[in-house]
Specification:
Elements (H helix, E strand, L loop, with lengths): L10 H5 L13 E8 L3 H12 L4 E4 L15 E2 L7 H8 L1 H12 L1 H12 L5 E2 L3 E5 L2 H16 L4 E4 L1 H8 L6 E5 L3 E3 L1 H15 L2 E3 L4 E7 L2 E6 L4 E9 L17 E10 L4 H6 L6 E4 L6 E4 L5 E6 L12 H10 L8 E11 L6 E6 L2 E5 L5 H18 L21 H15 L5
Parallel strand pairs: 1-2, 1-12, 2-9, 5-14, 12-19
Antiparallel strand pairs: 3-8, 4-8, 5-7, 6-7, 10-11, 11-12, 13-16, 13-17, 14-15, 15-16, 18-19
């Protein structure tokens, strides 16, 4: 029997609700749909399929939320890297507007699921602030706020004084506020989705690595490391930054970048009133963005890029600890209780990708750092597509799996770009 690889000693692993029972798959059987990966997309897909009466079996190599779904910053941010007008210019009026509507609804999906299913998830929805660290960034966020407000979002630009007050730092020149955003305890949210899916009738098996996918006359045969097999009409593959060699070239179609995070000791009441005093979450306009928030235990969490390799020691988080002190000097010599990281799946065009390389196999990949809302909503769309066959249910059209040229060199290249951005991004590096 496969044993789970333990989660990092993260803030989320320390404060999450208990994991649901997800025993390894030990006996072969059949399902309508096999979902590979128990992150947000896989769990949301299984939940929405089960609610439609479709038998879904989720197979997870480790445990629910083991990947980025249990390791991210817990920020629920609607939208994509591209603004609404950019999406229309890129895809045309109809497709662009449809994708913008999908992207704008992703935070609603998360908080709607928490409410509908009564999920035991610490959460708060006071909005997201994107701080601008240059004048060009101020112009950029002003346009962004105007475009989303035009579509009915509770969005507005912030001048420097209001940005300083709402963030608790004077390091930004301005920003914008999107009232749709918020925060969740991300591992508790993943575990809550799993419980909701199980209650609806989905089966979830942890510690069950999938080792083979083969299509035959009786459907897809999904082979696991234990030797047990599931035969199903359809397979949904959604492993994102932890994608392996299960499907040819898929792992080479993305860059799986590490996002490193630190969490302080709990702040005093006075310090909590001086940092993000109204409970917003925040990230900024840097190429190597920083993101920060207070969690439900009163700790300040800050995240950003780190080395591609897995961490070797606390020194791999030292740059983030220095940034905390520069952004928020009022913290003094506060200690750090948690350090952890997780892999984010980044596509070449910074958009989510869907692939349908063979009939009955649908692949979702590319969270772009906004996976909490994006992948929860993608799972609902995938379930509708599977149930109805309506391709318009999908926010993006399936495309061929495209291996990045010279993928083996991308880590070297991106590492060099990261070093360059650190020198030229300005501000608190």
């Amino acid at each position: 029997m496969a044993k789970p690889f333990p989660l990092d000693p993260s803030l989320w692993a320390a404060t999450a609700v208990p994991a649901p029972e997800t025993p390894p798959l030990e006996a072969s059987g059949r399902a309508d749909v096999v979902v590979i990966g128990a992150g947000y997309c896989g769990l949301s897909t299984a939940l929405h399929l089960a609610e439609r009466g479709i038998r879904a079996t989720v197979l997870e190599a480790q445990e629910v939320g083991f990947g980025a779904s249990g390791r991210n910053g817990g920020q629920v941010i609607p939208g994509l890297k591209f603004d609404p007008d950019d999406l229309v210019a890129k895809f045309g009026q109809e497709r662009g507007e449809r994708l913008a509507h999908f992207a704008g609804s992703t935070a609603d999906t998360v908080f709607g699921l928490i409410e509908k299913h009564g999920l035991d998830v610490p959460h708060r929805r006071n909005g997201w602030i994107q701080g601008a660290h240059t004048q060009a960034g101020v112009d950029e966020v002003g346009r962004r706020a105007e475009q989303w407000a035009r579509l009915g979002a509770p969005a507005r630009a912030l001048d420097k004084a209001e940005t300083d007050r709402l963030l608790g730092t004077d390091r930004y020149l301005g920003g914008w506020l999107d009232g749709r955003g918020g925060a969740v305890q991300p591992l508790s949210y993943a575990r809550g989705l799993a419980r909701a899916a199980q209650a609806a009738g989905a089966a979830i098996h942890g510690c069950t690595p999938v080792t083979g996918l083969n299509r035959g006359r009786d459907g897809w045969r999904v082979t696991t490391a234990q030797g047990a097999e599931i035969v199903a009409e359809r397979v949904i593959l959604c492993t994102n930054g932890y994608t392996d060699a299960l499907w040819p070239d898929l792992a080479q179609s993305i860059i799986a970048a590490n996002s490193f995070q630190v969490a302080t000791a709990p702040l005093s009441d006075n310090l909590r009133r001086s940092i993000l005093p109204e409970g917003h979450v925040s990230s900024d306009t840097r190429k190597l963005l920083l993101y920060f928030r207070l969690d439900h235990t009163g700790r300040l969490l800050l995240g950003g890029r780190g080395p591609f390799r897995e961490p070797r020691g606390s020194e791999d988080w030292a740059h983030l600890e220095r940034i905390v002190g520069k952004l928020f000097p009022q913290l003094g010599k506060i200690g750090f209780d948690y350090r952890w990281c997780g892999r984010v799946a980044i596509t070449r065009d910074f958009l989510p990708h869907l692939h349908e390389p063979e009939p009955g196999l649908l692949i979702d990949i590319g969270c772009q750092g906004r996976g909490v809302g994006l992948q929860s909503t993608m799972g609902r769309a995938i379930a509708e597509y599977v149930a109805t066959g309506n391709a318009d249910a999908l926010p993006v059209a399936p495309s061929p799996v495209a291996r990045l040229p010279l993928h083996a060199l991308h880590r070297i290249y991106v590492s060099a770009v990261i070093a360059w951005y650190r020198l030229n991004d300005g501000g608190v590096r």
